[in-house]
Design a protein that fits this description.
The protein is built from five helices and no strands. It is mainly alpha-helical and about 90 residues long. The chain has two domains: about 35 residues, no CATH class; about 55 residues. Helix 1 packs across helix 2, helix 3 crosses helix 5 and helix 4 packs across helix 5. The radius of gyration is 17 Å and the shape is elongated. The protein starts with 12 loop residues before the first helix and ends with a helix.
Length: about 90
């Protein structure tokens, strides 16, 4: 089952479950983002971080643009590099 509305959530599963009177698992199942959509969004963010790094930006600047921590920016760039290495080898 996929999300009925594919928007980012503003309430936690626990808060939703308390409001609806059901379990947190039920809320997660109903509100879950489809895996392929998550992967697509995640890879786009990684590719953007790599593009910014290749353009000469520092990790701190990338983090500011992507609204994340400096370490998260480093991880995004590294994941994109790893993924591109795997696709170029095969």
């Amino acid at each position: 089952m996929t999300a009925e509305t594919p928007a980012r959530r503003t309430v936690t599963a626990k808060e939703g479950a308390e409001a609806l009177g059901c379990s947190t698992r039920t809320v997660r199942r109903i509100a879950a983002e489809p895996r392929d959509e998550f992967i697509k969004r995640s890879r786009a963010r990684q590719d953007l971080a790599l593009e910014l790094k290749n353009a000469g930006l520092k990790y701190r600047e990338i983090a500011d643009r992507l609204d994340c921590s400096e370490k998260a920016a480093q991880n995004l760039v590294q994941r994109a590099r790893d993924r591109h290495k795997l696709t170029s080898v095969t």
